[in-house]
Specification:
It is a single chain. By secondary structure, the chain is an alpha+beta fold. It contains 10 helices and 16 strands. The protein has a 9-stranded mixed beta sheet with strand order 10-9-8-7-6-5-4-1-16, with helices on one face. Strands 2, 3, 11, 12, 13, 14 and 15 form a 7-stranded antiparallel beta sheet that branches. Strand 6 and strand 7 form a beta hairpin. Helix 1 runs parallel beside helix 4 and helix 3 packs across helix 4. The chain starts with a strand and ends with a strand.
C-alpha cells in the first residue's frame, strides 16, 4: 500500500557578487550530508576545456564556481566538475508546460532523492535577478527573471549527446543575461548543447518560443499558445526522439484540448497539481514523479508554487522581494506518494 512522504523545498536568498554568492552556497553545502559526500570526490581530472567554455559564456558564472570551491573547501577542478554543468551526465526526467499571455505553468517530474529541493531567489551584482528551482545548485530547471522572462527545460533524449552544456546551465544563463524571448533564443543558439532538449520560453509581452536544441542543430518554433512536453516536432529533428514518446504525445494532446477553456493562473494551477490530473505522475523511482507545480506570471512578477500533489499553492511576490518588502518562508512543504 502506498504511503505519503513529506517533501520540503528550501527557499534560498542570494545577493551580491558572483564570488560571494558562491561562497555562501558552498558554506551551506559543506554542512549538508548529501554534499559533504561530494567533497570526498576531490579530483585532479583535467577540466581545462570545461573552464574555457564556462568562461567564454559567462566569466561571472566561473567566479561563482570559484566561490563555491572556497566555501566548500574543495579544489577548483572538483567544483567545475560538480557545478559547471559542462560535459556532465544528465538523468532522465519529464516536464510539461502550458503558457498564454498571462501565465506560464509547468510540472516538473523527476526522482525526489536526486531533486535539489531548492527555490532560489538571486540578485547578482552583474546580471538580472531571478526566481527559480535549482538543479545541481548552479543550474535552473525553470525560472523567471526581473524582466518577466520565463524559461523551462524539457528533456527529449539523453542517449544522444556530445560535449556541451547541460540545459540547466543554459536556463540559468538565459535568466541572468536576457531581457526577452528574442535574446533568449539567440543565446541558446550560441551555446553548445550536450543533450536533446526543448526550451520553452515566454516574456513579459507574451512573446513565446520553443527551441528544439540538439547537439548539432537548434530549431525555433513560435506559437500562439505555448505547449511543450518531451519530444521534438520539427521534421529536421524528430528522428532524435526516444523510441517511445506516447506519454509525451498524450500530454500534448490533453493540453491542446485546454485551449478552449478560459484559464486563469489559479485554475490552471489546480489542473496541473491535482493528483488525478493526466499531467501529474507518481513514478518517482522511475525518475518520473511530479515534484513541483509552478505558475509564473510575468506581468506582475508573481509565482504560485505547489510542492508534491494536491497542495494549496504558495504565492510569492517576486516584485515585492526585489523592493525588499517580501518576507519569504524558509521552507515550502508538501507530500508525495512514496
Amino acid at each position: 500500500m502506498s504511503q505519503r512522504k513529506d517533501l520540503q523545498v528550501e527557499v534560498v536568498e542570494l545577493k551580491g557578487s558572483a564570488y560571494d554568492i558562491g561562497v555562501k552556497q558552498g558554506a551551506a553545502l559543506k554542512l549538508n550530508p548529501k554534499w559533504r559526500q561530494q567533497k570526498e570526490l576531490q579530483t585532479d581530472e583535467d577540466t581545462v576545456e570545461a573552464r574555457k567554455q564556462i568562461e567564454k559564456v559567462s566569466p561571472t558564472f566561473l567566479k561563482e564556481i570559484e566561490g563555491l570551491a572556497a566555501g566548500m573547501k574543495i579544489n577548483i577542478n572538483t567544483a567545475i566538475k560538480l557545478f559547471g554543468g559542462y560535459n556532465t551526465q544528465m538523468p532522465s526526467m519529464g516536464c510539461t508546460t502550458l503558457a498564454n499571455d498571462s501565465f506560464y505553468v509547468r510540472n516538473y517530474d523527476f526522482n525526489d532523492e536526486l531533486y535539489d529541493a531548492r527555490l532560489v531567489l538571486i540578485r547578482p551584482d552583474n546580471g538580472y535577478a531571478s526566481i527559480g528551482f535549482s538543479q545541481q545548485i548552479t543550474g535552473r530547471l525553470d525560472g523567471m527573471n526581473e524582466k518577466g522572462l520565463v524559461i523551462g527545460l524539457h528533456l527529449v533524449n539523453e542517449k544522444i549527446s556530445q560535449k556541451g552544456f547541460l540545459a540547466t546551465i543554459v536556463c540559468r544563463l538565459v535568466l541572468e543575461q536576457c531581457v526577452d524571448t528574442d535574446e533568449a533564443v539567440l543565446l541558446i543558439k550560441q551555446m553548445s548543447h550536450q543533450y536533446c532538449i526543448n526550451f520553452s520560453i515566454m516574456d513579459k509581452k507574451g512573446n513565446n518560443a520553443i527551441v528544439e536544441a540538439s547537439p548539432e542543430k537548434q530549431i525555433v518554433r513560435k506559437n500562439t499558445q505555448l505547449i511543450c512536453t518531451n519530444h521534438f516536432e520539427s521534421e529536421q529533428l524528430n528522428r532524435k526522439n526516444r523510441a517511445v514518446i506516447n506519454g509525451s504525445l498524450d500530454r500534448k494532446k490533453y493540453l491542446s484540448a485546454l485551449e478552449k477553456e478560459k484559464l486563469t493562473p489559479g485554475s490552471v494551477y489546480h489542473i496541473f497539481n491535482s493528483e488525478h490530473s493526466p499531467l501529474f505522475f507518481k513514478h518517482y523511482k522511475e525518475y518520473f514523479g511530479t515534484l513541483h507545480t509552478v505558475v509564473y506570471c510575468p506581468e506582475g512578477l508573481s509565482v504560485m508554487i505547489g510542492v508534491g500533489g494536491d497542495c494549496a499553492p504558495y504565492e510569492l511576490f517576486f516584485a515585492e522581494w526585489l523592493r525588499g518588502k517580501e518576507n519569504l518562508p524558509a521552507m515550502l512543504e508538501g507530500k508525495i506518494i512514496n
